Amino acid sequence: MAVFDAHLHVVDPRFPLVANDGFVPAPFSVDDYRARVAGLDVRGGAVVAGSFHGTDPRWLLDALARLGEGFVGVAQLPADAGDEEILALDRAGVRALRFTLRRGGRLDERLARRAWELAGWHTELYVDARELPDVALPAVVVDHLGLSRAGLPALLAAVERGWRVKATGFSRGDLDVPAALRAIAAVDPGALLFGTDLPGTRAPEPFRDADLDLVRDIAGERALWDNAAAVYRVGS
């Protein structure tokens, strides 16, 4: 079955990289990504801005042009990003705005609402679920299963309110991953979005092909394409 990879990174040293806590990732090109997922039937995905990308979207536009049809972007932008910049990025394939609370960032609700109202972008949060913000944004996706076992009850409560969760980065937190996947799917089978998190920068263990099989076995094939394609507004 076709796979939508809801969370991948491209690290292109042709564009500026920003050290975060002294960390700058090794290069990981579009060609590197395609080689790694060859055989997985990946036909689309979301290229996600990491903390090391800062707020300059030029690398993202280049990556989307190289990846082509089926791939969309998740940007990080400064609070003063203009309306026309957001609309231009939307025309180029950006579909969401990310806030990396886990890496020292903060949620700018005003910007998130403006991006939703202008372009229909949802908000993505890299955050420990123990620290989920109490906000009423129209559409929110939480990265990496919310990271923490202790935060799972709060994450499930958010799923009940319509938030979605990326089944990604399994080694990044302390969760019992199969149990967390089952719990989320039990609340809302449409909430889980599979992603590889490639290249797995700073993750103790990067993506394994078996991770895809685990998500499919627990959440069904819809978690591999349909759920994310709906969120990112990508056709089948």
User: N- to C-terminal separation?
Assistant: 11 Å
> Which CATH class?
Alpha Beta
Cα shape = globular
CATH architecture designation: Alpha-Beta Barrel
Radius of gyration: 16 Å
Oligomeric state of the chains present here? single chain
Q: Determine the fraction of residues in helical runs and give it as a percent range.
A: 25-40%
- Specify the CATH homologous superfamily: Metal-dependent hydrolases
Q: What number of domains?
A: 1
Strand content: 15-25%
Strand-and-helix sequence, N→C?
EHEHEHEHEEHEHEHH
**How many DSSP-defined strands?**
8
Descriptive notes:
- The protein is α/β, with parallel strands linked by helices.
- It is built from eight helices and eight strands.
- The chain has helices at 30-37, 58-67, 83-91, 109-119, 152-160, 177-187, 209-219, 226-232, and strands at 3-8, 42-48, 71-75, 94-99, 122-125, 140-142, 164-167, 192-194.
- Strands 1-2-3-4-5-6-7-8 form an eight-stranded parallel β-sheet, with helices on both faces.
- Helix 2 links the parallel strand 2 and strand 3.
- Helix 5 (152-160) packs parallel to helix 6 (177-187) and helix 6 (177-187) runs parallel beside helix 7.
How do you describe this structure in short?
By secondary structure, this protein is α/β, with parallel strands linked by helices. It is built from 8 helices and 8 strands; from the N terminus they run E-H-E-H-E-H-E-H-E-E-H-E-H-E-H-H.
